[in-house]
Amino acid sequence: MIQPSLRMNGIDVFQALLPPREQEALLADLRFVIRQAPLFRPVTARGTPMSVRMTSAGRVGWVSDRTGYRYQTMHPDGMAWPAIPDRVLDLWRALVSETRKPDCCLINFYGEGARMGLHQDRDEADFSWPVLSVSLGDDGLFRVGGTSRGGKTASVWLTSGDVIRMGGDARLAFHGVDRIRFGSSRLLPRGGRINLTLRVVV
Ligand SMILES: O=C(O)CCC(=O)C(=O)O
Ligand SMILES: [Mn+2]
Q1: Is the CB of 108 under 6 A from ligand 1?
Q2: For 148-178, how does the pLDDT look when each residue is reduced to its tens digit (9 = 90+)?
Q3: Domain count of the fold of the chain
Q4: H or E segment at 157?
Q5: What is the pTM of this model?
Q6: For atom 7 of ligand 1, which residue has the closest CA?
Q7: Under a CB-based contact definition with an 8 Å cutoff, are residues 194 and 107 in contact?
Q8: Whole-angstrom Cα distance, residue 18 to residue 147?
Q9: pLDDT value for 1
Q10: Which of 114, 128, 134, 111 is nearest to 198 (CA)?
Q11: Which atom of ligand 1 is the closest one to the Cα of 140?
Q12: Does residue 46 lie within any of the structural domains?
């Protein structure tokens, strides 16, 4: 098993796990997914648009609209979600499980000024599986706390090719992205940060 380079509030951080060539290849796979299932901007149940745009691959994808947030088998435009790219599944096999596949690969896109508030990933039915998260493109300031809101938090800048694993007690840790350094990476020619989270949902 590959060892994390850093542990932060129980979260394993694998810094610079993906070399630039691998990041490029992953990006090409993601472009293919996004052509079939375009990024959309979810709104919260209160109707506020999120700053992050997203889409998914896998048997289910995460959506949020006026009726609340949930996993569902279709993109908001009505098509099925594309398959999770093999390259992404390879990472899951190496860092999480060779037998159980993830049900969802959520794809987040952070443009200039986008962020994600502190939250727990708890829409999945089974918390015994870790969430695996891959960062591509611009640097993002990732913050992680404990399992209750308002606790002490720690932060790390995630850069392109970093992977984190949130499992065990940290599976339900509060986490979020305070800001990105728009234009800090040259992976995406027009800037921005992509984050993938692989999840067992059902
Ligand atoms: O962008 C990130 O690094 C985290 C994304 C996240 O927490 C989520 O999609 O639930
Ligand atoms: Mn999350």
Answers
A1: yes
A2: 999 999 999 999 999 999 999 999 999 999 9
A3: 1
A4: strand 154-158
A5: 0.97
A6: 176
A7: yes
A8: 29
A9: 81
A10: 134
A11: 3
A12: yes
